Amino acid sequence: EVVMIQTPLSLSVSPGEPASISCRASQSLRHSNGNTYLYWYLQKPGQSPQLLIDLVSNHFTGVSDRFSGSGSGTDFTLRISRVEAEDVGVYYCMQSTHDPPTAVQLPTQTSLGVVAQLPMCCLSGEQAQQSLSVSVRGRCWGARGDG
């Protein structure tokens, strides 16, 4: 079974800044047909996961061109050119080149928090509870409503 690992575990950025997430597979994801079946997903707080990028670098329908994917073999990167508040959530990569298909597992998914104004809030990505915080006008709200 292919193991997927992401770094970093959490990011905290200001709107307009770039962000980058790396994904590494335990073996090459290049299929014998020449395709690389690597996908990037975003799960926003309280929502189901949504596909951002398929086949390493192809935008899924309706996905902003602020998102881009790159990489080959075992190493892949998701980049956000200019982060917006709506980008807050948990990002993860998945492969379907090899059976069974595998995705990065908790707690190695990546939580992205967008800091609208100082002070910064802490992000946590521990075990089964992936929560993120956004700082707005100096106050902090958690995705689980524990502001």
TrEMBL record:
Limits of the Ig-like domain: 1-93
Swiss-Prot/TrEMBL GO biological process terms: immune response
GO cellular component: extracellular region; immunoglobulin complex; plasma membrane
NAD recorded as keyword: no
Keywords linked to the UniProt accession: Adaptive immunity, Immunity, Immunoglobulin
Pfam families attached to this UniProt entry: V-set
Protein name from the UniProt record: Ig-like domain-containing protein
Annotated source species: Canis lupus familiaris (Dog)
